[in-house]
Amino acid sequence: MRIAMRLRPVMLAAMLAAGSVVAAAPVAAQSVASAADMTAASGFIETLSDKAFGVLRDSSLTKQAKLGQFRTMLRDNFALEDIGNRLIRRYRSQITPAQYAAYKAVFPEFVTNVYAARLFDYADAKVKVVRTLPRGTRGDVDVYTRISTGAGNPIDAIWAVRKSDAGKWQVTNLTVSGVNVALTQEADFSAYIAKNGFDPFVEFLRGANTRNGLGKAQ
Questions:
Q1: Which of 19, 106, 157, 168 has its CB 3.0 to 4.6 Å from that of 14, i.e. a possible disulfide?
Q2: What is the pLDDT of residues 27-74, one digit of tens each?
Q3: Whole-angstrom distance, CA of residue 67 vs CA of residue 161
Q4: Three-state secondary-structure class, residue 19
Q5: Phi and psi for 62 in degrees, rounded to 5?
Q6: Is this model's pTM higher than 0.70 or not?
Q7: What's the CATH superfamily of 9-206?
């Protein structure tokens, strides 16, 4: 069963990984993003993409070293816990605390492994910020970008970002060529769980991590 594989490779490049998989994180403050926030959000996306693809282009690093650093960047800059919660929200009330803990243990590694591995072929991608707009009343900012991969037409992507309670900007959602990545990934997860059950779903994620050489005993 394919999970997280329906997005085209060029769309994965737009995600830096990711995250393919993204969701909104809860925040205490309820306010529209300011001009300063939008400038900061734009800089966050520019810096993140430059650093991430810079690592993949670094000829002094081995492939494993590149992927390791890239995974770390994804974990540090994407709201993975909130993303994971969003993707199983239909089943959250139906699963036990033990099942939830098992899912949380394998999900972050699954996400970063899947997208980091596929983005390796797009090291030459370039991300250009086109504009930024405030979204909603939670301080969210939509950062509109154009991504050139060196193959075909540029890709338009909208990065939804939000400042965490600790004051750190994080990616919370992404829309690529009009496709909402969070909704797509949630549908994939839900379809697998509905057909196979939650425990087999967690085992699928764990097995994928092991096959990528980074699985840990859970």
A1: 157
A2: 444 689 999 999 999 999 999 988 888 888 888 998 888 878 888 888
A3: 23
A4: coil
A5: -75, 165
A6: yes
A7: Tgt2/MlaC (3.10.450.710)
